[in-house]
Write a structure and sequence with these properties.
The structure is a homodimer of 200-residue chains. With 200 residues, chain A is an alpha/beta fold. Chain A has eight helices and six strands, in the order αααββαβαβαβαβα.
Chain lengths: 200, 200
């Protein structure tokens, strides 16, 4: 690609291009930005990556990422241990935390069931969820999975698997998102929001 | 932002968010992708950055980036030393090299003159260019600067500064880009392409 750039820069570009959201062109721009701002950006990023590689681990209880195991959320005694919120990935857990509306614990599946991609139940953190749900302190499992085919397939499968445990299994409401203009919403969302209408 | 993620991940996200093309949200996605693929991505990237920080330097002749000084292009005796192609930044040099149509040497200005951003001639690598152009082996200086107001201001200024040297000063042709549909071109490009028309 940039034959003149030398193998070190080439390698940096090809690694940056593997990040989600960065293609070959934006990886080149990122590499140049890094090389232009060595002390403020290149060296700190290199060190932050090395530190993350060394210190961040997966929580053996919930599957989240943290420097401690159990993670800060699982270890936090002020959080409601009777609620488990099931999410696809750590990114969804962070989104829930930013929303600030949930004070229970989490369970990170590590993906969704997908016939197309050949992802079966054994590839996900499902056994651990079922055993956690079996604990008598747990009252409710909230399935906060995406409103996609794979998300809904996974939710149905989990509801089946959790049927034996003494917990209620719920899922997030569907409807018009905050700030959502009806003009811009897809038909499925409008139909679901209409079906689930409530007194004003 | 992601209060639950711990300071190491927070720091990684905030550094990634400083890269061009990555915002807060895509930096989070990138951080998760890195943490999911430690051995294939996180550790290699950390090492590639450390190596780049240590080994990549600026060529004191042309201003390009390489692990050697002079850079591989300035040191390449098979390249035509009578041609100097002036570019704004190293990214433009890489683009010229990918096009594979130029076999001379380069001069990286390190920016463009800009009254708005307060960038004057002293902030750019202009003295070095004038002194290189004064060498009797140099016959032509090609200004490969962007077709923007700042690019054209800089080109005019450089043409003035180089007037004393015994070189012809040229610039890239303007016209319809390859694959360009007239429907999608701006009026300025169409007008320039029409003015510079040539026999078919």
């Amino acid at each position: 690609m940039a034959a003149s750039a030398g193998p070190e820069i080439e390698r940096l570009i090809s690694l940056l291009a593997k990040l989600p959201g960065l293609g070959q062109r934006s990886a080149r721009r990122a590499a140049l930005a890094l090389l232009k701002r060595r002390d403020q950006l290149l060296t700190p990023l290199s060190e932050a990556l090395a530190q993350a590689a060394e210190r961040v681990k997966t929580c053996t209880t919930c599957g989240s990422l943290d420097t401690t195991d159990p993670c800060a959320i699982c270890a936090d005694a002020t959080r409601d241990a009777s609620l488990i919120c099931v999410v696809e990935e750590v990114g969804a857990l962070w989104a829930m935390e930013r929303a600030g509306a949930f004070r229970g614990r989490y369970h990170v599946l590590g993906g969704l069931l997908s016939a197309l991609d050949g992802v079966g139940p054994e590839a996900l953190r499902i056994g651990g969820l079922v055993s956690r749900a079996g604990d008598e302190s747990v009252r409710e499992v909230i399935l906060a999975l995406p409103a996609t085919v794979d998300g809904q397939t996974t939710a149905h499968y989990l509801a089946d698997r959790l049927a034996g445990a003494n917990v209620s299994v719920t899922m997030l409401a569907r409807g018009v998102p905050v700030g959502g203009e009806l003009d811009w919403l897809d038909d499925g969302t409008i139909a679901q929001a209409l079906r689930a209408r409530r007194p004003a």
